[in-house]
Amino acid sequence: MLNVAHYHVAYGQSEVLHGLDFTVAPGEITAIMGRNGMGKTTLMKSLMGIVPTSDGAAAVDGIDITSMKSYDRVANGIAYVPQGRMIFPTMTVQENIETGLSISGRSKVPDDIYELFPVLLDMKGRRGGNLSGGQQQQLAIARALATNPKVLLLDEPTEGIQPSIIREMARVLRRIRDEKDLSIVVSEQVLSFALDVADRVLVLENGRLVHDEPRASVDEEKVAAFLSV
Amino acid sequence: MFADYTWTELGSIFAMQGFAGLILFSVFVLMALGLAIIFGQMGVINMAHGEFMILGAYVTYLCSNLVEAYAPSLFGVYFFFAMALAFLAAGALGALVEWSLIRHLYKRPLDTLLATWGLSLILQQAYRSIFGAREVGVSLPNWLLGSVPLTDIIEIPINGIFVMVLTFVIAIGVYFILFRSRMGMQTRAVVQNRVMAGAVGINTEKVDRHTFALGCGIAGIAGSAFTMIGSTGPTAGQLYIVDTFLIVVFGGAASLIGTIASSFAISQAQSTMEFFLSGSMAKVLTLLTVVGILMLRPEGLFSLKIRR
Asked: How far is CA B40 from CA A100, B272, B290, B299, in A?
């Protein structure tokens, strides 16, 4: 579903990602692990068209998106839940979700989104900025789902969220995958969450993929060694 | 200063100056609504806003002359066409300016100050070259002339009532566009986080252009209304731009209600004080009060209380 080949990303002269190759199968949840500064967020941002790609290509469902603007990428089926959630704070919960409907031209929030996140239905008239961190995270996911994506990117969704909600989130992400049959790429530092949610674990170290293994055969200690400081 | 007048005279003076203030208020609101969108929402310091207004005024002037010369039978209703044309002309110029100038400066908001100031000088000279340096006035259809006598000494001009009704309709329209329509929702999303708005699938470039054009178009309508109460010269826009910025900042940059409330406060204070004091003294007092209030409430009269 998502094909990334020979993928280089640089900020000016300093290259951060030195040629990544990976594919995400339809309906697969892939976790990209790595410590701070290893290039996880840069990968997410460049897949979303926020940071330009310097070499290589990315394709969603066979369509090359490498040189598209962000909103064209969204139209081609990629959606993004950024680190720090970045919801629109002065807009209501419902309006936040509706921004995701811009691509499809629908005007009503689909019911299944509120089914996934009932708390958002209760709070749909509140301003996004007044929600708690966990609720804002749900709102950011709901907003991304409203674009009807084929590939959902989540950048460190557990950051700043309390443990009980993290477990709940892993459950919700698997449910979204099962119901909507989309591929999910989640960047993560929390190993327990990644093992909880992912079908496959990649490790990003200094801008290169150094480890790629299905969940079933993951050697926890080895991955943990990559994450320790 | 009140001693020279009797109580009834004072009452009438306040009523009539109050009404003159309401007309000023209407023009301020129309100017400020456009600027509240461009400066309050988009963060572009548009020094050329007054010139967009004057463009609307000149379009109205041209319309009035053309209709008077070629289709005198339509003269009674020409104003409505003129207003629509003023909106379109100012909006089209706004879209052109956004495309050629402003879109390169979203990441450098202070540079928009210099760029649009330069634009305002260019436009002023263009008006001077095309329409001449002399001020021009439009002739109003008969039904807009005259006044309604309320009592023996209080009279209310009809064109003033028309400007106020117009302002009311436009203010409601702007509210619906910004807060009840898809375009408004996308505008607010882009304004709050341009990068993220793109990443949820909003065509940010298109939204920016439409928003800027809308703000300029409303300035054009303000100019059209302005012709009814004053004459139009190449530099007339300059007289209003400072007041307009003052209103938007004082009202709270992102709040429409704030913009309207502060237009009301400032125009009423100006108009009432101008009768009793000199014009510049009235201005000094207004500015001092605004500065004082802004020191107590730096975000303006109305600001949203949320976590950011």
From this structure: 24, 28, 18, 11
Subunit contact B198:A70, Cβ cutoff 8 A:
yes
Q: Which residues of B touch A75 (CB under 8 A)?
A: 201
Residue A46 pLDDT grade (very low, low, confident, very high; cuts 50, 70, 90): very high
Question: What is the overall mean pLDDT for chain B?
Answer: 87
Cβ–Cβ under 8 Å, residues B163 and B26: yes
From A219's Cα to the closest Cα of chain B, the distance in A is 35
- Cross-chain CB nearest to A99 (options B186, B254, B308): B186
Does the beta-carbon distance from A75 to B201 stay under 8 Å?
yes
Are residues A175 and A27 in contact, defined by beta-carbon separation less than 8 angstroms?
A: no
Look up residue A151 and give its DSSP letter.
Answer: E
Q: Can you tell me which residue has the tokens 């591929």?
A: A183
Considering chain A, what percentage of its residues have pLDDT values greater than 90? 69
Structure tokens at B188: 């607010």
Residues in B touching A88 (Cβ below 8 Å) = 188-189, 192-193, 196-197
Q: Is pLDDT of B113 > 60?
A: yes
Looking at the complex, report in whole angstroms how far the Cα of residue B70 sits from the nearest Cα belonging to chain A. Answer: 45
With beta carbons under 8 A apart, name residues in chain A contacting B182.
Answer: 98, 102, 107
User: Chain B closest CA to A46's CA: distance in Å?
Assistant: 11
Domains of chain A, earliest start first? 2-85+142-227 (3.40.50.300)
Whether residue B308 has pLDDT greater than 70: no
Rounded to two decimals, the ipTM of the complex is 0.88
A59-84 residue pLDDT tens:
999 999 999 999 999 999 999 999 98
Q: Which tokens belong to A161?
A: 């969220």
pLDDT at B154 over 80: no
Q: How far apart are CA B254 and CA B27, in angstroms?
A: 19
What are the tokens at A125? 């008239």
3-class SS of residue B162: helix
* CB-based contact B189 A49, cutoff 8 Å: no
Which pLDDT band, with edges at 50, 70 and 90, does A98 fall under?
A: very high
